[in-house]
Write a structure and sequence with these properties.
Blueprint: E1 5-9, H1 14-27, E2 31-37, H2 38-44, E3 52-58, H3 60-69, E4 79-85, E5 91-96, H4 98-105, H5 109-112, H6 118-122
Antiparallel strand pairs: 1-5, 2-3, 3-4, 4-5
Organism: Acidisarcina polymorpha
InterPro entries: DUF302, TT1751-like_sf
Protein name: Putative exported protein
Length: about 130
């Protein structure tokens, strides 16, 4: 485990987890800014990479106040979730820990609540025992 990163196993394949997370974002009116298919781009370059996709998303009403208070937070916003398959075929969800981002950019606890949605967004993708 790396400091500042939360990683949790998914109960779904990469593509299934991506589809489910896209649906959750849509349902909650959270804008999906980009979906980067790292493994697809690797394949296009003639390289092999296990399924690996990055979703970049957010809500300007939540992120803008943070970036106004701490402009360097724009380095880490919008929010991102990496969905990747490990060498054993297990899918993992990874994201920046909001507490880490709070310390990194000196964000107030009140504003940190604006980015503390990642656990909620991913809870249905993670097995209940985790």
């Amino acid at each position: 485990m790396q400091p500042g990163i939360v990683s949790k196993p998914s109960r779904y394949s990469v593509d299934e987890a991506v589809a489910k997370l896209e649906a959750i974002l849509h349902e909650k009116s959270i804008k999906l800014f980009a979906l980067i298919d790292h493994s697809g781009e690797a394949a296009a370059a003639g390289l092999h990479m296990p399924p690996t996709k990055l979703l970049i998303f957010g809500n300007p009403k939540g992120g803008t106040p943070i970036m106004l208070a701490a402009p360097t937070a724009a380095l880490d916003l919008p929010l991102k979730i990496l969905i990747a398959e490990d060498p054993q075929g297990k899918t993992w969800l990874s994201w920046n820990d909001p507490t880490y981002l709070q310390r990194r950019h000196n964000i107030s606890p009140e504003l940190t609540q604006n980015i503390a949605v990642l656990e909620t967004l991913t809870k249905t993708l993670i097995p209940p025992e985790v």
